[in-house]
Amino acid sequence: MSGLSLEKKRAVSVPAARHLPAEPIQQTEPVPPASRFDTLAEEILSDSLTGPLAPIAEAIRDGRIPEAATLASRTTAHAARALGPRHPEVLTLGELAAYIAYLTGDVRHACELSLNLAYRHRESANPAAAYANVLSAAAAWRAIPDPASALPLGHTLTTLWTLLLTEPGPASTDDPHLLESARERLPRLAARARAAGRPT
User: Fold this and answer.
1) For residue 170, what are the contacts with CB-CB under 8 A and spacing of at least 6?
2) What's the CA angle centered on 21, arms 185 and 161, to 5 degrees?
3) 110-134 in b/e burial notation, b at 16+ Cβ within 10 A?
4) What pTM value is reported for the model?
5) 140 in Cβ contact with 166 (< 8 Å)
6) Per residue in 41-60, pLDDT tens?
7) Is 20 left (phi over 0), alpha (psi -120 to 50) or beta?
């Protein structure tokens, strides 16, 4: 994630994801724009999340990540029943859940959640939010250590990304090499999976 200022009345820090990238990104690859993970980190640090999101953000700031995960899961389920699965508040709660999964190193789950949210935002005609979630999914996807698990998610990611690229919205005006970089990783994943004796 991009660097964030921590100059506040009280010092806070958002924990880093507890993993190393499964496949280091080459220096020649383009740097992606801000994902939803980046903007959520900024919102958490600035205390700008309110309502049911606030206690989750506070738990993250304090490093109480398991508690934040429990709060996010319980609050999301309650809000979805009361407001419906595509309500903006429910979607933001889902983004927080994905971000928490990323922080704890559960990158596969973070990728799956972010892809699901991206599809929901696309269906709700919100291409900017869909693209931000795609970028979050891409960040998590690159850190999945098992190539056989990463491969099908990579196909889902690039398929959705391609759809957004052909539709009005920020994806259509962004650097096309970002998507191409993700596509180029797929055969490398397939080769690693075959070398490990895993089906592809």
Assistant:
1) 127, 128, 131
2) 40
3) bbbbbbebbbbbbeeebbebbbbbb
4) 0.81
5) no
6) 999 999 999 999 999 999 99
7) beta
- The tens digit of pLDDT for each residue in 73-117 reads 999 999 999 999 889 999 999 999 999 999 999 999 999 999 999
